[in-house]
Amino acid sequence: MTWIIVASSLLAGVVIGLLIGGKLSANPSRVKELEAQLREAKETDRRYRDNVSDHFSMTADLVHHMTESYREVYEHLASGAQDLCPEDVAGKLLPAKTDAGFNEEASAGELGALVPPKDYAAKATPNQKGALSEDFGLEKPAPADD
């Protein structure tokens, strides 16, 4: 009787194993379909990246062109003001033929006058609690006498 139970269990295990193995086995047509989908997704991603790159390249060119046009307009207005307006009006504009209005670097004198912000609050006395202290602004209650 034991042999029959062992043999039937073994047979049932083999049948169940074959059924599960058949469900999990790679179907060649499904593999090819998934590979085709992967190739298509990679191609779509590549096209998207190329479009983004082209977009920002063109944007950079347009902004550069716009900056150059603005500079030319400004120089034209400045030279016209120097030629056509009184000295006090023309002096309000930057001199023509300079890029002073477009210079992003500050002069050394201007940098020396700048003071970076402090990341702390100044104390009136050395014993005073700073603004970042846990008990800043909190008064300690007086001990209660019983």
Nutshell version of this structure?
The chain has 146 residues and is mainly α.
Description:
The chain is an all-alpha fold. It has a domain at 15-101. Helix content is 62%, strand content 0%. The protein contains 4 helices and no strands. It has helices at residues 2-24, 28-84, 87-90, 108-113. The N and C termini lie far apart (89 Å). The model has no long low-confidence stretch (mean pLDDT 78).
Please give the structural blueprint.
Layout (H helix, E strand, L loop, with lengths): L1 H23 L3 H57 L2 H4 L17 H6 L33
Low-confidence stretches: none
| Proportion of residues in extended strands | under 5%
The percent range for helix content is 55-70%
The backbone outline, from C-alpha atoms, is: flat
Mean pLDDT: 78
Can you give keywords for this protein?
146 residues, mainly alpha, 62% helix
